Amino acid sequence: MKTLQIKKIIYLTVSVFMFFSLTNLKAQNKTNDTKFIEVINRDNGLSIPTSSFVPQNENIKPDVSVTIELSEGEAYLGAGVMFKGFVIDGNIPGPNIVVNEGDIVEFIVVNKGTIPHGASIHSASTQTSKYLGKIYAGETKSMLFKASRPGVYMYHCAPGGHGIPMHILFGQYGMMTVKPKKQYKLEQLLNKKPDVEIYLLQHEIYSSGKDAIDGNPIYTLWNGKLFRYVEQPIKAKPGDYVRINYLNVGPNKVSTFHIVGIMWDFVYWQGNPDLPQAGGQTVTSGPSDSWVIEFRMPPDEGAYTMLDHAVSAADRGAIGLLMCDKNAQTPVVVTSEGPKYEKKEFDEIKSKIIRVVAPFEPGTPDIDPVVEYGPEVKDVMVKIIGNSFFPKSIKVHQGTTVTFQNEDVFTYMEGEFSGIHTATTYDAPAPFNSPLLGHAESFKVKLDKTGAYNYLCAPHIYMKGVVTVVADESSSGAGMLWIIVLVAVAILLIVFILLKVNSIKKKVGVVN
Fold first, then answer.
1. What is the C-alpha to C-alpha distance for residues 144 and 157, in angstroms, rounded to an integer?
2. Closest CA to 316 of 211, 168, 242
3. What is the CATH number of domain 183-338?
4. E strands present in 317-441
5. Which residue, 45, 67, 229, 328, has fewest beta-carbon neighbours within 10 Å?
6. What are phi and psi of 441, to 5 degrees?
7. What is the pTM for the complete model shown?
8. Segment 60-79 mean pLDDT
9. What is the pLDDT of residues 339-395, one digit of tens each?
């Protein structure tokens, strides 16, 4: 009886505890739901834009649906230069995306590559990584968001972790413009749409991971092609209303965009119509900064030079022409994606390529020359930095020890295997395979067999390098020296014998 009473007390105690726990949990959930609803209701009642949050609900019909395809591939940069790296829709930059303020946008990302990719959308003030981060090869993911704030924005690949800057550095980015409901000032004053609207994306090309980390681009481009608007000038008539949606993707350099002979009427930082500035000669933009620039073409025909007034960039490709011509056909729109080519045309271009820029593997020798070490050098270092081996190609002698050291620092967060690397042969006279190397960790291997050691990073199979091992000249030289000595001794011996024979013949009177 006593035991039964104790059990009842325990049962009642547990029941009361569970009741209050569940009640408290429901109260917490209700509170959280209420807070969430209150945030939405509060934002809807403000005079400033709401966040871009939209429930990921199949019942919500988007106003605009956008699809991009991410992969590894090639893009022609002009001037006989081919780029081999990451691309969007087979190109650099990706598609020029234009939506209207207030649109519900469905953003679809298709991974057509062999490694994880993803997407970050700067025009979305809501969570994107949990919907579009780390999309595996062959997968498709999508998200809904509201384009709540007008302006000029960047979008780019974002597989997570160390992969985010790497995929931006090496080609996967584009421009998305959210058109405002409110008119820009020059549009109000002239009471018309632009005669010439230009979407101008500035971006840098790097030949190696080291150059990318150091911020030393080999080229700076507008809209995917070197000197694109020198070869094909943009045309406008005298008096035309010109609007430029300008984005400096970078991803490293600051730009100062200028047009020779033009003063701005109005510029708007980030493309926001509520942030007008009157006049000016340049706009200064750090990586991912943007502007809307408005002006009228002067009543003076001729060539107006557009350039990045940080002139090293202009010299490397960021320069073009805006031609003022009374016979120009306007209105016209110039979009930001890279040039597109039919397969036959692209194959013909490839047959005439004079340079390949490949940040992850050896390009043409003019870009990635073989670094040769003499027979006296028995210890050589190869750095791993920016998802690239440096140097990518080396030549050493038999018996040389090669050390691979990882200089990538960012090894945090889930992503495209973060900044951890290996050096692993896939075609070599003798195999080697390092362990996974974190920051500053190293792996040594002594190479005794001659031949080409082709290797890659196991977590990042697009990262490739080669070590060519040649015979040790010192040992072969010593062998040759002994042969020469032996031949010389043999010759001397023969001469000595001949002289001796001749002397004997004279003594016996055989020789007259």
1. 17
2. 211
3. 2.60.40.420
4. 319-324, 332-334, 355-357, 371-372, 379-384, 389-390, 393-397, 400-406, 424-427
5. 45
6. -80, 155
7. 0.85
8. 97
9. 999 999 999 999 999 999 999 999 999 999 999 999 999 999 999 999 999 999 999
